[in-house]
Amino acid sequence: MRLSLVQSRALVGLQSPSVTVEVHLANGLPSFTLVGLADVEVKEARERVRSALHNSGFEFPSNQRITVNLAPADLPKDSGRFDLPIALGILAASGQIDGRRLQQFEFAGELSLSGALRPVRGALVMGMALYRQDKAPHLVLPPGSAEEAALVPGATVFRATHLRDVADQFRLEGQAPTEGPSSWERMVQPVHVHPHAVCALDLSDVKGQAGAKRALEIAAAGSHSLLMVGPPGTGKSMLAHRFASLLPDLSVEEALETASVASLAGRFRFDQWRKRPTRHPHHSASAVALVGGGSPPRPGEISLAHHGVLFLDELPEFPRSALEALREPLESGSVTISRAAHSAEFPARFQLIAAMNPCPCGYAGQVRSPGHQSPVCRCTPDQVHRYSSKISGPLLDRIDLHIEVPGQSATHLLQAPAGENTASIRARCHRARHMALQRQGCTNQALSGAALDLHGGLGTDAAAYLTQVAAHFAWSGRSTHRTLKIARTIADLAESQVIASEHIAEAVQYRRPFAEHR
Prior knowledge:
Elements: E1 2-9, E2 18-26, E3 31-35, H1 40-43, H2 45-55, E4 65-71, H3 83-93, E5 105-107, E6 110-111, E7 117-118, H4 123-131, E8 138-141, H5 145-149, E9 157-159, H6 163-168, E10 185-186, H7 210-222, E11 226-229, H8 236-241, H9 252-264, E12 278-279, H10 287-291, E13 292-293, E14 298-299, H11 301-304, E15 309-312, H12 320-324, H13 327-332, E16 334-338, E17 343-347, E18 351-356, H14 381-388, H15 393-397, E19 401-404, H16 410-415, H17 422-440, H18 449-455, H19 460-473, H20 477-493, H21 501-509
Parallel strand pairs: 3-4, 5-8, 8-9, 11-18, 11-19, 12-15, 15-18
Antiparallel strand pairs: 1-2, 2-4, 6-7, 9-10, 13-14, 16-17
């Protein structure tokens, strides 16, 4: 009887628990049994491993009883990530490689029938799991996955393109190496540099709309969410797509968190490293697509937008269930997907930028210029009410800034000079954000409880004014606190330590209630 142990890792949400691949060879009727709560694609590894070993020049013990156990047995396993450790375990148990040397490494990779290695999802999540260990083993991954894991500081990652090249590193003494060049390579830790602040999309492209640009500046400086309401063609989407360029570059820790979610979903791209993600799902997206779900649980759009921007265009057209599912993540910054067997928690600290029309046809409130045949709204009051009421009061209450984006004449669009560019607005946002971080250690949107009372310094007149406005509009406690946070950001942009009445007055303009929600 011969036994070998090979280490690997599974994926459960953003966790990557350790898995021991145990391979046992014994006399008896020839068979290949795989146990340990393996999903269908894991069980299919039997055929992939058999063909890969034959085509790589190794002997497959087809005349023995092969038992492969993926421990722990109660942990769900999916995908083809265990192909490589299973193949190495069979080689070690059959005496074709030195199994003792395998204990210093962890392996993951899908095998083709020829023995070539294919990338796997969640390589960065595996690297992060080793990053938190004191004496982490070395990680062996296929091309594409190894580059991801090498982004983790301090990780020791090796890349190989073929099963034969991996097995050569653990050959027995006296064994001749395989002829030809080897693809086995230790990955070099990349240098973490800040990306150039050159934006392909600049706010100077948007003519006019000074009020909307001011709201974007406040949102970027204080990490506030924003809702833009206006007729079609006024520049709402242009403004939203340029918003991410106002935000600061991601730190290495934030970039690793963002990239880990993208890697888990199989959407990581190296050209997006340390760039704020901007996700803009179609309005037909379901609640599961936005929040996440499935079995095993997968991250949704709000998690893919972690530390970035989630842009929801045509907000009332989204399914009501999908919009209501955003309420808790907007407050908590995370989402927990619970299933009968287990649950997974995904980060979801994003900035929501939403856009909508004022009515079904989009032209409610449109002003007609004399002599011009501009569109006229023909929606009935009941139609307008039903359209706007698709956004519930609790969700609207959680969006910090509400602004109107009016239409502009063709003369203004064609003759107006270019507006202020992104770089100058970004510099002001950075100064205000830095002031907030120095004062309280977080952005203004994250203030709550005693921290809000301590750092939301109100003058006597400003406090009386805010109290009067809150009573007039019958604001909830959440709306009052959000107005205070917006005023704190406006004061930071003005480089003022105290929130004055004029800061409250401007903040109130961004919390005016919809007529349908009064």
